[in-house]
Amino acid sequence: MSGDGVTYAALKKDIKHRMDQTVEVLKKEFSGLRTGRAATSLLDPVMVEAYGQSMPLAQVGTVSVPESRMLSVQVWDKTMVKAVEKSIRDAGLGLNPQADGQSVRIPIPALTEERRQELGKVAAKYAEAARVAVRNVRRDGNDSLKKMEKANTISQDEARQYQTEVQQLTDDAIKHIDETLAHKEKEIMQV
To answer: Quick count: other Cβ atoms within 10 Å of Cβ 52?
Structure first.
């Protein structure tokens, strides 16, 4: 966004929206990180070759959590059971599915201490990328404010006040990222 005809309210709304999106993306990335407990989101990235095309697992069966360390996929079309089993095995999630009639059972193995630490590092990397993205949004916002000030659509005092508000949005987003990371790390380290 540039300073031409853009109001501060619209700019602030855009900045907040972009920062919120960054936090949402981080949460989505975290949901794909496997902890020792079963969660249906674990299978979200799995794509199944079905009916001549690649489709998400959720479109060929129902994923459920019958036990804390077990996932189950109730496959709607009996002929797709083998394809679902193969897709889960090949997804690189370290899971070993077993066909059981028209469903596929997926035991969730316990994580080793080494694997937990690895996942913690990956989570920290995701969080740092999100922090950088938030800071980039702040920089873009401040650049827009400078253009607005140069174009005389806002005064120097308003520009300073708005930059303070943008910094507050940044601090809030980064605090949210840090809290999300702390929660994920706690989840990963829980035995």
So the answer is: 5
User: Confidence band (pLDDT; 50, 70, 90) for 142?
Assistant: very high
**Distances from the Cα of 164 to the Cαs of 2, 18, 151, 176, in angstroms?**
19, 18, 20, 18
Q: How far apart are CA 167 and CA 153, in angstroms?
A: 20
What does the alpha-carbon distance between residue 140 and residue 118 come to, in Å, rounded to a whole number? 33
Widest Cα–Cα separation across the chain: 71
- Tokens representing 31 are 């949901």
In the chain, the domains with their CATH numbers are 8-32+112-189 (1.10.132.20), 40-107 (3.30.1360.40)
Q: What is the pTM of this model?
A: 0.67
Per-residue pLDDT tens for 31-75?
A: 777 666 777 878 888 899 988 899 998 899 999 988 888 899 999
Q: How far is CA 114 from CA 14, 56, 111, 118, 135, in A?
A: 41, 30, 8, 6, 32
